Amino acid sequence: MSRISDRIRYVGVNDDEKSLFEGVWPLPFGISYNSYLVVDKKIALIDTIDEGFEKEYLEKIKGEIGSRVIDYLVINHMEPDHTSLLSLMLDIYPGILIVASERAVPMLKGYYGLTDDDVLVVRDRDHISLGSCDLTFHMTPMVHWPETMVTWMNAEKTLFSGDAFGSFGALKHGISDSAFKCECGFPHGKDDAFSMYMDEMTRYYSNIVGKYGNAVQSALKKIALLEIKRICSAHGPVWEKQIDEVIGLYDRMSRNEAEPGVCLVFGSMYGNTAEAARSLADELAVAGVPVAVHNLNVENISGALRDLYRYSTLVVGSPTYNGGIFPPVEAFMHAVSARMVRHRSFFAFGSYSWAAASVRHLNEMASKAGFTLLNEGISFPHAYSREKCNMKAIAEIIRANISENS
Ligand code: FEO
């Protein structure tokens, strides 16, 4: 069902083939590239999609508008997952006018060879009329690139939000959250679908947009003036029912607000740091502390970053490796630092063979990131044992800290 309303039509596609988004982030549930037509006396296309789906995309567009032409192509965001079919659209609709922010212009020239004459540059609150309705543009730089803007259709209280409020996860439950239904291979039931997309929105935000929390806060303040009844983002469902929940999640994540709990991330060479991690996870569970465990020997850092944003305490385990941190764990810590997450408590542990270094380096990185160290951490030599690592005591320190700050 592509008809979101009489005037708004969904012409996006699902990508179930790609395994890594941006070449980095896993896609266990696929991803959608959303594109919308606003059909009025004039027709606007909001964003395009990634390459590889040309035939399906054109069929969808033709199915909606037949032989009519598209007057405007609104570029909310220049990243190629939304602009890859721009040249194709120009070939098919040579009279189309590209509508974009000033900061998009050099990118339109660089990526697609456009000239100034091809682009209608819009600034904050500029609008275009399609006949019975207007589209108004609001600049939202750095959500997620500097040229980013959102498009407001006041006649239907609809926000075309680009990456903002987007999620991983192909649209297998229906296009809009007002019509979620289950399909084989996905979590069943509309509540499960909602929670899957909220998880995938958290992962999308933490992996891709999270570094720009201040910019997200500025954008949220701007759109707070709008009476939003529908969010059409560039990835994931159209939000019509759970708008407050979706905006609330973005607000909490961009303010670094977290739930009480632990994101426990570790890597291990010969299993000793892994045993310490399992022991601590068990003790946290006994103490009633929510804990999400991520083993970087077998996992991409994507899920660990999601839970860094979700939980108030980050616990990291690494053996000493070449006088430093085990490489997958070090990569995770660099990703943490780059996101400038604030207001997290931190604890480190890890094994060593002849010189303890990993915990010291982890603590230095966490301190530089502005985290609060719960104590100096635990470095233990050689094999893991309960005597060397009193994880029951550590779990109690973490529980007490969470309780104090909740
Ligand atoms: Fe969906 Fe920033 O691209």
Cα(first) to Cα(last) distance is: 44 Å
How many domain units?
2
Beta percentage is 15-25%
CATH superfamily of the largest domain, by name, is: Ribonuclease Z/Hydroxyacylglutathione hydrolase-like
Mean pLDDT: 95
Question: What's the architecture of the largest domain in CATH terms?
Answer: 4-Layer Sandwich
Shape: elongated
Rg over C-alpha atoms, rounded to the nearest angstrom: 24 Å
Ligands present: MU-OXO-diiron
Task: Provide the descriptors you would attach to this structure in a database record.
six-stranded parallel beta sheet; Rossmann fold; 23 strands; Metallo-beta-lactamase, Chain A; six-stranded mixed beta sheet; alpha/beta; binds MU-OXO-diiron; 2 domains; 406 residues
Secondary structure: elements and pairs:
Elements: E1 8-10, E2 13-15, E3 20-21, E4 25-26, E5 31-33, E6 36-39, E7 43-46, H1 54-65, E8 72-74, H2 80-83, H3 86-92, E9 97-101, H4 105-112, E10 119-122, E11 127-129, E12 134-139, E13 149-153, E14 158-162, H5 190-209, H6 213-223, E15 230-233, H7 243-254, E16 259-266, H8 272-286, E17 291-295, H9 302-310, E18 311-317, E19 320-321, E20 324-325, H10 327-339, E21 345-352, H11 358-368, E22 372-373, E23 378-381, H12 391-405
Parallel strand pairs: 7-8, 8-9, 9-10, 14-15, 16-17, 16-18, 18-21, 21-22, 21-23
Antiparallel strand pairs: 1-6, 2-5, 3-4, 6-7, 11-12, 12-13, 13-14, 19-20
Helix pairs in contact: 5-7, 5-9, 6-7, 8-12, 10-11
Bound molecules: MU-OXO-diiron.
